[in-house]
Amino acid sequence: MMTDTAKILIVEDDHNLLDTIKYNLRKEGYEVITAADGAKALTTARTEKPDLIILDVMLPEVSGLEVCRILRKETTTPILMLTARVEETDKVVGLETGADDYMTKPFSLRELIARVRAMLRRTRMAETKTEVKADTMTIGDIKIDIARHQVAKGGTNLELTPKEFDLLAFLAGNKGFVFNRDQLLEKVWGYEFAGDTRTVDVHIRWLRQKLEDNPEKPTHVITVRGTGYKVEG
Fold first, then answer.
1. For residue 206, what are the domain limits?
2. Would you give the end-to-end CA distance of the chain in angstroms?
């Protein structure tokens, strides 16, 4: 459960960048803890239980991608990945390991802080259920249990990342309505500015892999060409 003063874990082996991020987040009133390698990141995350993790991809000992993959099996804590790589596939891999979003270096500290605020705000809203319209929702043979944060298809529980669940719950709660990528970034990720819409596309693709009988011909998570996405069923 998040406290009034959120605790943020920064995992970064560039000490200058680590100190800069730490300084600016502390100025914003956050409690900040740090780790400089993947092994320490896992230990610190497990013992300190931060409210949000800022995680660099390239780390000694254990890579950031592997840290993310391991932690995502243990916790729903929001993870913002940092990467110096520019290839689109590297960004997608970060999201596929369970990160909620990513930023490419070099980045604006102002934007980083805005993303942190948005991610923490969305977590608080989820905890207080401010946007929940029902305890459970159904899409065909898919049941979404809001209270338990669980999704089942045909009676079999599915493993969704926290952001996949948030995206599905929002679309299912507005069944039949079409939302473009920028709207979904605002409603699900909490961004009040233009973000990278590739984040939305990757989460949609992985939802389809888990929900649809044939992900190539989805019947529940639908693309409305030239407009956006909606849920039907």
1. 136-231
2. 34
Full pLDDT tens readout for the chain, 233 residues: 444 589 999 999 999 999 999 999 999 999 999 999 999 999 999 999 999 999 999 899 999 999 999 998 898 899 999 987 665 555 666 677 888 888 888 889 998 998 899 888 877 765 544 444 558 899 989 999 988 888 999 989 998 888 889 999 999 999 999 999 988 988 888 776 656 677 889 889 989 999 999 999 999 999 999 899 999 98
Q: Give the closest residue to 210 by CA, choosing from 155, 148, 157, 131.
A: 157
- End residue of a domain, out of 128, 160, 192: 128
Q: Structurally, how many domains does the chain consist of?
A: 2
Q: 2 in a domain, yes or no?
A: no
Do 81 and 155 have their domain in common? Answer: no
DSSP letters for 119-147: HHHHHHHHHHTTT---SEEEETTEEEETT
Residues 111 and 42 in one domain: yes
**Which pTM value belongs to this model?**
0.69
Rounded to whole angstroms, how far apart are CA atoms 123 and 190?
10
